[in-house]
Amino acid sequence: MEPLVIDGSHGEGGGQILRTALALSAVLQRPVVVKNIRAKRPKPGLRSQHLASVQLLAEMTDAEVRGASLGSSELYFSPGLIRGGRYSVDVGTAGAVTLVLQTIILPALFADGPVEIVIRGGTEVPHAPTVDYAENVFLRFLRDLGADVHLDVVRRGYYPRGGGKVVLRASPFRDLPSVRMLDMDDEPVDGVSISAGLDPGIAERQRAGAEQILRSAGVSVGKIGLQRIPRSEVLSPGTSITLWSRRGYVGASSLGERGILAEVVGKRAARWYLRQIAPMAPFDANMGDQIVPFLFLARGDSSVRIAEPTEHLVTNLWVCSQFFGESFEVVKEEAGSVRLDVHGSSSGE
């Protein structure tokens, strides 16, 4: 079969194009060539977390791969069947484990048996979802669809040394249902505030800052837990706070920074959360692009509302259309949100 050629410089031109192309290649058994990988990033080409994803998925599918090296701008990937079993991958340093998850979760659900994957790297790092967001927003969405998929955090990994460890467990779930979610009711916000290797009081102050902003906006606050991790249990110290809606799929996070008050870190997460719930859409901006491949593979037509459009959403829709055709529509709404309608590949004609 001739490979499908994907231009990695399209749209936002980042690693998401590669992640989605690889996931769909594995599920659809379609060879791909991804060119101009991450062409619009300051350091283009494959970085450690992308290479880890390629190597892991190649092992799971016994794929033929060419161009899998650091800095490579072009990759050929031709997969075989997706095999269940136990796998392990080390991203190295603080490369984001959640970005590896974005590559392998979909193939894991289409494997021929249960999958258990140990991933080592960064669990809370800049420019990537936290593991708490992955488990309590994205994977919860999949569980609500009927998937048996969970993420266990064995050890936290903060920038710059990483060293985190998570375990993904998933059972086959190939019959993806269509999704119709257009509204979200008022509901409590839960979360977790973490101080790892630093003053334990930082976690409480982050939570206090978040709760102040949320309550002043009239948002009901549920349980925002505290985790205080000893310095001996992390390679690099760090702090973070992640918030999530109890039923809708809206989340927000913020990472501690040198010179930034803990209360400010918490307030940042809360303000982003408020921005996402303002249109009362069931999916936040960051969830929008992550759910796209699942909607295209669903057995029926889906219609969802997303808090706001992003370049990542537009780009991921383009990647999926290379595999499935232009079987979607994006409708902008007055509240700033968008409605996404997708004709699932299993819908029939």
Task: Walk me through the structure.
The protein is of the alpha/beta class. It has 2 domains: 4-174, UDP-n-acetylglucosamine1-carboxyvinyl-transferase, Chain; 189-277, 2-Layer Sandwich (Dihydrodipicolinate Reductase, domain 2), CATH 3.30.360. It contains 8 helices and 16 strands. A 4-stranded mixed β-sheet has the order 1-2-4-3, with helices on one face. It has a 4-stranded mixed β-sheet with strand order 5-6-8-7, covered by helices on one side. The chain is globular and about 60 Å long. The two termini are 25 Å apart.
Q: What would the keywords be for this entry?
A:
globular; 4-stranded mixed β-sheet; Dihydrodipicolinate Reductase, domain 2; 349 residues; 8 helices; alpha/beta
Please summarize what this structure is.
The chain is α/β, with parallel strands linked by helices and 349 residues long. It is 33% helix and 26% strand.
Taken in chain order, the helices and strands follow as: EHEHEEEHEHEEEEHEEEHHEHEE
The CATH topology assignment of the largest domain is: UDP-n-acetylglucosamine1-carboxyvinyl-transferase, Chain
In whole angstroms, the N-to-C terminal distance is: 25 Å
CATH superfamily of the largest domain: RNA 3'-terminal phosphate cyclase domain
SSE layout and pairings?
Elements: E1 4-7, H1 15-28, E2 32-35, H2 48-61, E3 64-66, E4 75-78, E5 85-90, H3 97-109, E6 115-121, H4 131-145, E7 149-155, E8 164-170, E9 180-181, E10 189-196, H5 201-216, E11 221-229, E12 238-245, E13 251-255, H6 262-277, H7 285-296, E14 301-306, H8 311-324, E15 328-332, E16 338-343
Parallel strand pairs: 1-2, 5-6, 9-14, 10-11
Antiparallel strand pairs: 2-4, 3-4, 6-8, 7-8, 10-12, 12-13, 14-16, 15-16
